[in-house]
């Protein structure tokens, strides 16, 4: 991926093309999960992470808790930046993510999004849980980007008018299956 600090700023949102990444790594179960997310959302982006500086990200993924890890664990991502954000805004978003470390993955919220996308109806069991997150929900909440927190997919973040893509991965873009 190269030296991320050359083109990323703490607070940048990294949106991952998971089908591509997991295919390259031959992680077939994760590829299937990414394929399902992509199909439900109509987006190539299936995961989101927050760049926190010094080559590190904070994210949460299926089967994992919110954690900091090296950006080198990601590839096939594009970087998005909140338009007009100040250094204080970026610090606030990063600090928000730091405070979420070790919280659990929010399976119920993901199931609610799937239900709503498939049926067009709101799932009555859906609720916001401040002790659980899924990837794009946490980044959206850190930046307060949407009016409907808890219902934001990585693809929604990519099309939000408050963000702009600032770096596109140079990883090979491949049509899958």
Automatic annotation (TrEMBL):
InterPro entries: Papain-like_cys_pep_sf. SUPFAM superfamilies: Cysteine proteinases. This is Uncharacterized protein. It comes from Tumebacillus flagellatus.
């Amino acid at each position: 991926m190269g030296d991320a600090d050359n083109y990323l700023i703490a607070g940048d949102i990294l949106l991952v093309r998971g089908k591509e990444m997991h295919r390259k790594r031959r992680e077939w179960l994760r590829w299937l999960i990414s394929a399902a997310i992509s199909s439900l959302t109509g987006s190539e982006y299936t995961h989101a992470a927050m760049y926190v500086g010094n080559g590190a990200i904070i994210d949460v993924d299926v089967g994992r808790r919110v954690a900091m890890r090296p950006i080198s664990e990601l590839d096939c991502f594009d970087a998005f930046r909140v338009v007009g954000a100040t250094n204080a805004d970026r610090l606030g978003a990063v600090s928000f993510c730091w405070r979420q470390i070790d919280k659990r993955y929010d399976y119920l919220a993901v199931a609610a999004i799937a239900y709503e996308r498939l049926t067009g109806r709101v799932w009555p069991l859906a609720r916001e849980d401040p002790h659980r997150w899924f990837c794009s929900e946490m980044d959206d909440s850190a930046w307060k980007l949407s009016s409907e927190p808890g219902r934001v997919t990585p693809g929604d973040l990519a099309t939000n008018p408050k963000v702009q893509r600032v770096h596109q991965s140079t990883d090979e873009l491949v049509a899958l299956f």
